[in-house]
Amino acid sequence: MRQIIEMSEREYFAYVGKRPGIFVGTASSFHQLTAFLTGYDQHAIRHGGQGLTGWHEWLVTRRGRNCAHAWPGQVLHIALPEGWNNITDLLPGDETRAIEVLFQLLDEFAAEREARPDARNSD
Fold this sequence. Notes:
The chain is mainly alpha-helical. The protein has one domain (about 10-115). Helix content is about 60%, strand content about 0%. Helix 1 packs antiparallel against helix 6. The two termini are about 20 Å apart.
């Protein structure tokens, strides 16, 4: 019999961040991880959860400026302030840095959301 483990979104993001290859087939693809998280977001919202609602706005506030990029681009601006050429073809060191920063930011975002008195449990 399979046991289902309950975890908060914050715990789930940390789990994915520690084992990204399980979820996207490769441990070092920022682009594939952002696609996975976009799917997670849409599924959560469709089933009554919060998903990543407010994530883009949080990143813009965190960064202190807006641009035309969606949230993956906002994360890259924070992780790679010197810039990048192609989100689907980052240099190996940039890829590693972007993934590390992505999950650090997700942890901070989820922690702040959990701390709000009006936060809903989307599990």
